[in-house]
Amino acid sequence: MLNPGGAERKTGEKVLNLGFTDWDTRGAVEANRKMFFESVGVGKMRFAGLRQIHSDIVHRVGRTEDSQPESAPEIPLQGDALISREPGVLLAVQTADCVPILLADPRRRAIAAVHAGWRGTLSRIAEKTLGRMAMEFGTRPQDVIAALGPGIGQCCYEVGGDVAKEFQAQFPSARDWFEGPFDALASGENDPNWLPWLTMRPPGHAPPAPRVRLDLIAANRAILSAAGVPAENIISSGYCTSCHTDLFFSYRRERTSGRMMAVIGIRGD
249 or 188: which carries more pLDDT confidence? Predict the structure, then answer.
C-alpha cells in the first residue's frame, strides 16, 4: 500500500488510496489508480464503478459506452453490485472494512463485483447478484467462483442489539455468525431500561450497552453456499482490515481513511 505521493497516515507513511475522498487530493488518486491498473495489467479496459449506498441494488453493465474512465469525476449509478459479460469492461467496488465479493462464471463468461457491509449482507446482496446473473446471462450458481477480499473480521467488528435482531429475523442460522450475548440481544432481553431512574444510578453512569461481534465473511459464505455456490468455490483472503492497517484501510479503526478497490473484468481479446 506504499505510495510515493498523495495522502499519508499519522505515522508519515504514504499510502495507495484509490478512492476520491476529502482525505486525499484528486491528482494523487488519479496517479494511484493509473499505477494500480498498470500493475494488474488491464491495459485499455474501461472502468465501471458505483456510488455505493449500502443497498441491495444490482446494475448490469452492457456496452463499453456505459462505463467511465477510471478518473471520471461522477459515477451516475447508485447501488452496490455490478454484473456484466461485456469484454473490455472492468467492474469495481471500493471498500475500507466492508467485504468486496468478486464472482466469475467461466461457462457463461459472466462476472460481478459486490460491496457487502452489514446492511448489504442482511439484504442478501450476494444472493441477489447471483439471481440477476442467472436471469440476465443464464448463470448457474454451481458454476460460479467467488472471491471474498479483505474486510473487517469478527475479532474487531462490534455491533449492537439492533443489528443482532435484524439478522435473527432474516436468517435461521444467524447465531452462527456472532460472538457474544447474541441470544439475549436478539430477543431484547438486554434492551436499556425505559425507566433509567429505576436502576438507582446517577445520570450518565449507566453501564454501556452489551455488544456482539459479527462475522461478515462467514455470513456471506453461508449466503453464497445456500444460493448454490459450492463451498470449495468460495475463497476468502482471511485478512481483517482493522487488524492490519499497515496493509489495508479501515474506516472503523481510523475514521478518516482512503479506499481500496477490488476489480474483475473480461479481457477484450
Answer: 249
The H or E element that residue 186 is part of is helix 182-187
Q: What is the pLDDT of residue 2?
A: 44
At residue 11, does pLDDT exceed 80?
no
Which residues is 14 bridged to in the sheet? Answer: 8
Residues of the chain with CATH 3.60.140.10: 1-155+229-269
pLDDT recorded at residue 210: 86
Q: Hey, what CATH topology would domain 1-155+229-269 get?
A: CNF1/YfiH-like putative cysteine hydrolases (3.60.140)
Amino acid letter, residue 186: A
**DSSP string covering 87-152:** TTEEEEEEESSSEEEEEEETTTTEEEEEEE-HHHHHTTHHHHHHHHHHHHH---GGG-EEEE--B-
Q: Is the pLDDT confidence value at 73 over 50?
A: no
Q: Is the pLDDT of residue 243 over 60?
A: yes
| The pTM of the whole model exceeds 0.90 | no
If we measure between CA atoms, which residue out of 180, 176, 181, 182 comes closest to residue 217? 176
Cα–Cα distance for residue pair 1/61, rounded to 1 Å = 29
Q: Distance between CA 149 and CA 141 in Å, rounded?
A: 19
Find how far residue 171's CA is from the centre of its chain: 19
Give the gyration radius of the chain's Cα atoms. Answer: 20
What sign does the CA torsion over 8, 9, 12, 16 have?
negative
Residues with Cβ within 8 Å of 5's Cβ and at least 6 positions away in sequence, in order, are 14, 28, 31
Check residue 77 and give its pLDDT: 87
In this prediction, residues 162-173 reach a mean pLDDT of 96
Q: Which three cell numbers stand for residue 129?
A: 447478484
